[in-house]
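In the current project phase, we have settled on a layout for protein records. A sample record is reproduced below.
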Amino acid sequence: MDQAIAPFDLVIFGGGGDLAQRKLLPALYYRHRAGQLLGSSRIIGVGRRELTRAAYRAQVRESCGRYVDRQDLDERAWDGFVERLDYLQLDAADGAGYQALAERLRAEPDHVRLFYLATLPELFAAICEHLAGVGLTGGEARVVVEKPLGRDLASAERINDEIGRVFREDQIFRIDHYLGKETVQNLMALRFGNALFEPLWRREWVRDVQITLAEQIGVAGRGEFYDRTGALRDMVQNHLLQLLCIIAMEPPTSIESDAVRDEKLKVLRALKPLAGDTALARTVRGQYRAGAIGGQPVAGYLDEPGIAPDSHTETFVALKAELNDWRWAGVPFYLRTGKRLQEKVSEIVLNFRSVPHSIFEAGALGEVGNRLVIRLQPDEGVQLFMMAKAPGDTMRLRRVHLDLDFSETYKVRQMEAYERLLMDAVRGKLALFMRRDEQVAAWRWIDPIREAWDAQAVAPKPYTAGTWGPAASSALVGRDGGCWYEES
């Protein structure tokens, strides 16, 4: 049984929405089932729809039936979980309904209060102000805000100012679910819990680093939202840069919140700027056209519901980043993400340099170089590629690999990202959440890329759904003599 946490009240604004039903409530069910939620903890969904408590519970049961493994949905656990669920009809923008929320929460004055804003960012300021107006923001109150927090640095700063007028920085949890993934936690353990890799984790031994977040799905019914956002804002500014930070950061003095985030901030500030012609030369943006995924035809982006017929929104981004610091100077970090790609995969690849001198005959080595592959999904694990002698009477080497498959090694169910992050937010642990200065540094690096694209005013490069993106993405890596891991 996992360690129980102090009693809390979790209020989900947007409690009937897709994020709550698909991710948050199933995650909370699993934590209840694991014994982490104490008897008096409550979960209150807030929304504009008129629902009874019984109707909301039925809705949550239906969602959990879809998003929780059937073998994990046992009636005894469900009966206990459903008793925690409540619902309150409330227009988040209208302060009139907040007094009823305050009265409900004051029934348990000693509880930690966690407000999860699973709404449009345009509502964040109003929600925070109305919560303050009824006295719910003091003491052990915390607020969780979802990405994307703004469209650029200016809008992000405005939203942060609005939230910051009500909540202190140590009460604000800016969530990025990739940081809650088990393999990302294991990346920290791999780097800082083993002496084996630290001497090699630097420019002298690493040739390049590749980070790929690839999806097979399209806009998945979020066409209007996605067309205003695009892959650069939706994935690069947060997920990809956060993974880059964990790979590249110096060892923190501890795993305490600010110690970790201080080191990540140094990485973001060390990124070489990508602006103007440099941004155009070192980035690729694409947009998918009709193709096939898994043998099934799929529509092109411009044919998706909610997409403007002349949209230049990118569904694919690849870029080459570099760091101005002693550990990584001169090492390219290749980042890419896209929709409707050949596979659904999230992974980090470190390609190490070849041996400085070969003692073997010409042609004996085959494919040269060690490689470390850290896969975040779909099958979480680590592979280390190395050279070994092939069977036979000649000294010919070939690449083999050692595997660490977490599901096979531990043979226990792994926590989903939102399970870990929700429990950390209740505990007040901020290490896996973005600090404001981190977010500012990320936007400062991203904004010039967007500005260079807008100044160019050329449509994104087309790619066929079911491929690995535009050919220019391969050329980006190929100019340095390399190739993407999937293509090797």
